[in-house]
């Protein structure tokens, strides 16, 4: 009665986005996690996606390779994270945990979450303009952040404008960071975003 898995009944996730299916418990003294499995039921057939046992972590369904993960170093957290969601990922996902107690008997609990992957209207990326003009003291840390919205996945590019020519590419993250600004960093910077 001590050990119980907590999860949610339903998750709605966006196509090409990512989601986490919660599956958590409070670790109890005298109970050791023996095995964790995540399986999916779709069109009346059930397949095991992920198994963690004494020999390590195994992703058993090839279409999930490189797209699923379970926290490694947080006892009691068996949640499944899925990235780059596809429409066929919709289905009933079951988290099953088996523990061994001090008298060597096994206890099994499971929790099921229904996942619905939905397409959202495709939108071009838009950038929210930040403050125009930034004065920074030489030697201090500085950063510029590009805030964009639109259909995922969004990629970022930061450029330093060159008079009369193409800008010089400086980075491909949403944030451009200087550990220590020098006078030679003065200039006009711009961000470009793109999606599919």
Automatic annotation (TrEMBL):
UniProt record, GO biological process: negative regulation of complement activation, alternative pathway; negative regulation of interleukin-2 production; negative regulation of macrophage activation; negative regulation of T cell proliferation
SUPFAM superfamilies, sorted: Immunoglobulin (SSF48726)
InterPro entries attached to this UniProt entry: Ig-like_dom, Ig-like_dom_sf, Ig-like_fold, Ig_sub, Ig_sub2, Ig_V-set, VSIG4
All copies of domain Ig-like, residue ranges: 17-112, 125-196
Coiled coil spans: none
Alphabetized GO MF terms: complement component C3b binding
Gene3D superfamilies the UniProt entry points to: Immunoglobulins
SMART domains per UniProt: IG (SM00409), IGc2 (SM00408), IGv (SM00406)
Protein name (record): VSIG4 protein
Source lineage: Eukaryota, Metazoa, Chordata, Craniata, Vertebrata
Gene name of the record: Vsig4_1
């Amino acid at each position: 009665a001590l050990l119980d898995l907590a999860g949610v009944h339903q998750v709605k996730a966006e196509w090409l986005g990512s989601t986490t299916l919660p599956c958590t418990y409070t670790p109890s003294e005298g109970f050791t996690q023996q095995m964790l499995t995540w399986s999916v039921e779709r069109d009346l057939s059930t397949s095991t996606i992920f198994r963690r046992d004494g020999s390590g972590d195994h992703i058993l369904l090839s279409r999930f390779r490189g797209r699923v993960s379970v926290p490694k170093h947080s006892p009691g957290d068996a949640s499944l994270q899925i990235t780059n969601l596809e429409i066929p990922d919709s289905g009933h996902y079951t988290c099953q945990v088996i523990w061994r107690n001090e008298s060597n008997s096994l206890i099994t609990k499971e929790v099921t979450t229904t996942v619905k992957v939905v397409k959202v209207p495709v939108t071009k990326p838009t950038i929210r303009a930040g403050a125009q003009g930034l004065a920074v003291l030489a030697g201090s840390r500085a950063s510029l952040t590009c805030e964009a919205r639109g259909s995922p996945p969004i990629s970022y590019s930061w450029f330093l404008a060159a008079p009369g020519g193409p800008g010089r590419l400086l980075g491909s993250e949403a944030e451009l960071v200087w550990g220590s600004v020098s006078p030679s960093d003065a200039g006009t910077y711009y961000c470009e975003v793109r999606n599919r």
